[in-house]
Design goal:
Elements (H helix, E strand, L loop, with lengths): L1 E4 L2 E5 L10 H16 L9 E8 L6 E8 L2 E6 L8 H12 L14 E5 L16 H5 L1
Antiparallel strand pairs: 1-2, 2-6, 3-4, 4-5, 5-6
Length: 138
């Protein structure tokens, strides 16, 4: 499932437990995106933050790992902190950009939610200058 909101495109894979996209994961990623939007201009291009959250309201206990960078957000459902690996990032990049995944994962996520980097804000046009009085009369 693909959703576009607030200048970001979110891609959700189907959860292997619920057999539908992970909307609880989407809510977490949107919350992280909102927090990142508040810090706009303060994060450098090399900024990266990783963490772990507990998804409430799921049909089973679910811990998810997330990664926030200037380039986007990634959430990996039903994984524990010890399951983190660079392979998860490669898997997310493969899903976002196409291609094939090579490598191994300590554990496979039940679902993923990926968010693109925000679209740049459109440049504001300079306000129109009024015509000189002489030009307006001709």
């Amino acid at each position: 499932m693909i959703v576009t909101r607030n200048g970001r495109t979110y891609s959700l894979t189907q959860c292997r437990h619920r057999k539908e996209p992970c909307l609880k994961g989407l809510a977490v990623v949107e919350h992280l995106a909102s927090s990142a939007r508040c810090t706009q201009g303060l994060m450098g291009p090399d900024f990266e933050m990783q963490g772990c959250v507990r998804l409430t309201g799921c049909i089973r206990p679910c811990t998810a790992l997330f990664r926030l960078t200037a380039g986007g957000l990634q959430l990996f459902c039903d994984l524990e902190p010890g399951d983190w690996s660079p392979g998860l990032v490669r898997l997310a990049e493969m899903i976002e950009g196409g291609g094939s995944f090579t490598g191994t994962l300590p554990a496979e996520p039940a679902a993923m939610v990926l968010a693109s980097a925000p679209e740049p804000a459109p440049e504001r046009a300079a306000p129109a200058r009024p015509l000189p009085r002489e030009a307006a009369l001709h």
